[in-house]
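Lab manual, section 2.4: Encoding a predicted structure.

Procedure: take the sequence of the chain (236 residues), apply the prediction step described in section 2.3, and record the output as structure tokens. A sample record is shown.
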Amino acid sequence: MEKQVMDLVKKKAQAMGITQKQMAKELKVSIPTVKRWWAGKGLTLPVLQQVSHLLGLQLSELFHEAESRGSGRYTYTLEQERVLIQNPQALALFDLLVSGKSVAAIKRKYPLKDSVLTGLLLKLDKAGLIELGAENKVKLVKAGEPQWIPGGPLSLKYRRQMIENFLADHPKSETVFLIQDYSPEDAALIEARLKDLEKLMHVCNARSGSATSATSYGVYLTFKKFEWDLRDTLNR
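Recorded output:
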């Protein structure tokens, strides 16, 4: 996602006739700094905020357009899900690769023997999820975020387990669950803010792949029309 944002920034800047020198002058930074940005390095949210403002865009608009131009999401095939169900380690490994982690980074964090790691990579390659090259060089076959088949093998096996584990009581967790009446305008506003948050999370997720130190967090966001069936007792 981060690369998509910067590719879009460069295209927008070129279309507007804004050179790296002009951008450096407008944002009061050095030309080498702008060159690093254009190479996808040193990007922070304040930087993207400044750049998007220079291009006459809201940051959320920049994220949305970059996301729409990207490959977005794709769904596993049934056969791929069957392979991943039979090989939980392969599923965990592929999840790390999709999140931007390199094979070297995975080896540093997890006590996997070389033979085991290579075997898992070969399974992912055979399933058509990665292209495995020499010295375990990996290329994802599809860019974007993989989705489970609704009601498919992965969903049936892991979805409820993941949600229940994540929402389980924990002294450090903060969970907000509300059933509230909203006007159509407020409902639309909340949905828009959640979309902005999702885009921000995708950008941060892209950056985490190159981070030297990162901690896993879980986020569960759902906003939908919902009527608690207990209220039906009032109709009886």
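Check your result against the sample. Residues 184-208 form the longest helix (25 residues).
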